[in-house]
Amino acid sequence: MNSAIIRHAIWPLLIALALAFVLVGSGLDLAYVIPRRLLRLAAMVLGGVCVAWSSIAFQSITGNRILTPAIMGYEALYLLLQALLILTLGSASLALLGHHGNVLLSMLCMLGYSWALHRWLLGNGKNNLYFLLLFGLVLTLVLTTFTQFIQLRISPGEFSVLQGFAYTSFNRADGQQLLYSGALVLGVGVVGFKTLPSLDVLALGRDQALSLGVDYPRYVRLYLALIAILVAVSTSLLGPTAFMGIFVANITYALARSSRHRLTLPLGCAIAISLFIVAQFLVEQVFNYKTTVGILVNLVCGAYFLALMIRSRGDA
Amino acid sequence: MITLKHIHKAYAGKTVLHNVSVQFPTRQLTSLIGPNGAGKSTLLMLIARLLKPCSGEILINGRNAAHYRVSEYARQVATLRQHPQFSLRLTLEELVAFGRFPHSRGALNEEDRQQIDTAIGFLGLDHLRGAYIDELSGGQRQMAFLAMTIAQQTDYLLLDEPLNNLDMKHAVQIMRALRRLCDEQGRTVILVVHDINFAANYSDHILALQGGAVRFCGPVAEVVTRSRLQALYGLDFEILRSERGFVCNYFNPSDQEREHEQG
Amino acid sequence: MIRRALPLLFVLLCSVSLLVGVKQLSWAQLFAGSTDAWLTLTASRLPRLAALVLAGVGLSLCGVILQHIVRNKFVEPATTGGLDAAKLGILLALTLTPEAGALGRMLFALVFCFACSLLFVAIIGRLRVQHSVLVPVIGLMYGSVLSAIAEFHAYRHNILQNMQGWLLGDFSRVVQGNYEVIYLILPIVLLTYLYAQRFTVLGMGQDTARNLGINYVATASLGLLLVSVTVSVTVICVGAIPFVGLVIPNLVALQFGENLQRTLPIIALSGASLLVACDILGRVLIYPFEVPIGLTAGGLGGVLFLALILWTRR
After folding, report:
1. Cβ neighbours of residue B123 under 8 Å, at least 6 residues apart?
2. Among B41, B209, C11, C33, which residue's CB has the most CB atoms within a 10 Å radius?
3. ipTM of this predicted complex?
4. Is A126 on the interface with C (CB under 8 A)?
């Protein structure tokens, strides 16, 4: 009963939060303040959907409640790729490849990474969860080191472009990028929604899924591809979100009290968006820009993850 | 009818099954028995198509199993494996509903709902309908998964050690339910079972494997004999028959055997 | 074979290290008595080499001690939050008592590192799941929470950019007159040798240690204190260098076993060699610029760590 109330209450709450975010202290300035805030809100909505959807789907196909794409090194890889692009092509790389080219290339790389990860680490389903987690954390550190190394090689102007990528922020995206991202997320959403019941079955594990007539390898590949696209979109829109995904996913499971994706995915999206709005609101109104969303997210979600691991019983 | 022809299976160069050719009688309950490492589970997983044979073929209703589509196969053969860890938050009813997935791909219709109810009722799980799977006891959870497999409404049911870690009462409940599936609904059940007494008392047919090859195969009355079991397990057996069934006693060697060992 | 080759390799690396740099230096100049060349040598190259060797020895010994106290082969200052605690300490010293100078910063780093290490050991002792890989996972998370706190604090004081720069391990700032604190590692190394046997016993567990008449708590605390001093000294002098303390003891243990009294010299020498090699690499990689050793050692160490994780899985 309780979970039903939460499921229904979250939407009005989300709308109220969004309205408050757009209107509070805006002076109803329709010419500048409100459009700017709407852009930020759009970035949060898209980013929230990406983070929640990719994390929950990733946890379902890997059969645990800890691993998320961000932890398995997806975001670090994205940032390394951006650094490499700037190193090899200069900051003109954005202009040279065009926005589409960059996004397309990033997605191809993420798809390749998904494939490699699945082929060697996740595929057999026999690897210990903590082992995968340690692998992901260390890989993230190593990739970050390489990114920093490349930063040394590039000129200061390009450095600042790159530095911008490395922090969570809602101000990065312009209208056009939001439009493309929105279209991509919509596309993923349509495919994802069509195959939603299969995702429920995938969560039962390879053997059970096959036995229930779901072509497990095919659907896992499909979902890894969708996840790769979502992570690429969210990282390009917001920057790295690190432990946000794990936080959102676990809060969602606790509130939804169900593992049906029909319930968890929308709820997860709502929670992620709300958290982003609250964080941004805190940064703007409470901390007076003396902190950033990225730092807040790291602090809160990191502490939550630490607590989760310490309390872990090994069956997560 | 499930027919295996010259099945050969090896993992990393190690042969697990060697030239296995058998037929499983329809509408009967067949137990796969044999010592550890005999290849029982592998054989079952091959039939379930969770593993691929290195050579040989498996025929389901006369058609090569490898030629079925995944979704098509799931309407013919249902498989139940063990679920030692299960952390998904699903109610028993939601879990059983997954059994209808091969038929409805997730959108339940009236017939699906009926089949779900029937499966839950069949195992007497009505009172646990809304209970969460991860909060059930091991025995109840196994029953819940069995209900899902039953709801799948397939002609063939494959179960891999369904009695593992269960107390006697739940083990007997499961075996009786499987018996009824054969007798009342005419389904073909194949299971791997470790306890020879369960195999002897509830099966129609027994297939014994040893070292990756078929040791013997046939109706229970024919194959459950002292000499055959002794050779299979390397233990001294005593087989007692009464009107309530068999008891295969292998716990302590007979005096004769003991003398033999000491001499 | 390796045992004999190692000192040779070390000497070779040291001499290369003395000669490589922006300023050309050759043995011929030194023999000719060029004052300029000698100045470069004594004011910059020698201090740098000394700092490298000491940091390498200190960090790899830190790893060994921690691995025995926590009884987990995947721990070292970077995977127990020690490095991040020291950074946090320095940051607080900078904002709270800016006039305290290097010594004050060092003290803050030491206290934070020690306290956080004690807390970490206490947390690990209370875990419900005993799994060897869970410990470094929690350590890394613990470290990232500590560094998130540091970032939060640094951002409020507008020194975030600053902090990221000077906390990355870098030996290029080491010149005569500003690095001498690092000699504090020498007594630590001596103490570690003295206590080697006890740390080995500690690694066998609390009960065994008690049976053999070793005060577990006191010895473990001493070990953590030694680690904290080393970590804070290196972070103050040269910045954070992750993974050296993890990779070296593990590689040495694979080859030579885990009897500390026998393997400590090898570990120390290998740690020093690794840092000197990484430093040379950093100096030639994008010559005439330098790659901070935090990146070269961190990258190389991280890759080796990944290989180690994959290797132990088999």
Report:
1. B143, B146, B147, B150, B173, B177
2. B209
3. 0.85
4. no
